[in-house]
Amino acid sequence: MGIEPIGLVTLAVGLICLLRGSGPTVIAFSVFPVLGGAAAVLIGSTGIQPGHLFLGFLILSTLWLHGDAATVTDRALRSQPFIWLALLVVYGILAGYFAPRLLEGTMDIIPLGTSASGGSEGKIPLMPVSGNFTQAVYLIADLVTFGLILSIASTHQGFRHVTFGVLAFGAANAFFGIADLVSAGTPLADLFSYIRNAAYTFHADEMVAGMRRVIGSWPEASAFAGASMAVVGFCGTLWICGRHSAISGLLFVLSSLLIVRSTSSGGIAGLPICFAILYLTSLFRCGGSTGTRASLSVVLAFPIAALMLGFLLALNRDLYQEVYRFVDITILSKPASLSALERGTWNASGLANFWQSYGFGVGLGTVRTSSFAVALLANVGVLGTIFFLAFLMTAVILPRGTSRTYEADVGLAARNGCLCLIVGALISGSTVDLGLIFFIMAGLRAANPAGSGLPTISPDRAG
């Protein structure tokens, strides 16, 4: 067991935040999940990420130093989404322990985590694997995160702190993306070794369409694009609603460009879906006395811009060829690539395991897939999938609060951030765990601060 330099930084920031109060602790906790390729503490081949290490400081701050454990527990247990998520976690842990043992040797799997050497296509007979433990730990951390953020954001001040924290996450993600973009051949590239120290395979020097892929602080381009899609959904919605317009608009544009520049097939394919979500949001947010200029501009300008882009591509053959070549390399020809064929094998094997287990799944963290939907079915089966969908519906989808207030607009942004993250996960997600930032945004969305609305400057009006 050893503490890495980034772990020492995490501990130092945690201690400083505890002394400064709950606000800095919440904001810092929201930022640390951006270090998705870092290990703060190494225990053999297993690493504890900075975000999960900092969760301990958030627990100390919320339950002891700057909060009340009884209040936090009461708010969590009164929350329907928390109960659904708790059921998923409990079922996942039980399934992860019993299913690989009860069904041991009855089918072949492509394992998640370390295991015995696989045979053809990396398959091994079903057995307990290290992923059963690590994924259980991650889901418990997700549950704790959701419960704490839900409680913190139930106050006006806490709601703002979490909002600023998610914005800070977006800023940090964009910073690392830009730094990675310009770091090749410079001393800056050596600094990334301190935050790319986890026991993952890093794809930092891969080339696509003649460009080096951008991975930021994540192990691969798809993970970076997935986090950036969450930022696109969250910050794009805030800009549409006229909330924190300067920073949210800038982060929306930067994150969108970085997704394209990452050359991630999942990110490029999912980005138009994210834009469609934002356009629908603009349709419902414009008009009336509380409509915003940004939402009206999007509704009117987007179709015109799409037409102009179509005409430009039709009239400029060279530009059309360049755009088509890029899309062909990143999306159209991707299904024939070796990586896509491998990922297709993961999904086919996962679906086969789902049917072979009679719909119960083979246990949390047992098999590797390349789609979040397949990961749910293969690992936790029909029942676990129902628990997650119930959580998603009650925490993220269902409307709450008075519309077009500050908290309603931020909640809408959190909802769209969650949905955009899920879009990326459905395309290339390999596990049931969606990451801490998803559950931070879900907790923000599910929270309902007391009172009719937060005191804040009115959004930019449409007139």
UniProtKB/TrEMBL annotation:
The residues the entry assigns to the signal sequence are none
Q: List residues traversing the bilayer.
A: 38-60, 81-99, 136-155, 162-184, 221-240, 267-284, 296-315, 372-398, 419-444
Q: Which UniProt keywords apply?
A: Membrane, Transmembrane, Transmembrane helix
> Which domain of life does the protein's organism represent?
Bacteria
Establish whether keyword Membrane is in the entry. Answer: yes
- What is the protein name for this chain? Uncharacterized protein
Q: Report the source organism.
A: Agrobacterium albertimagni AOL15
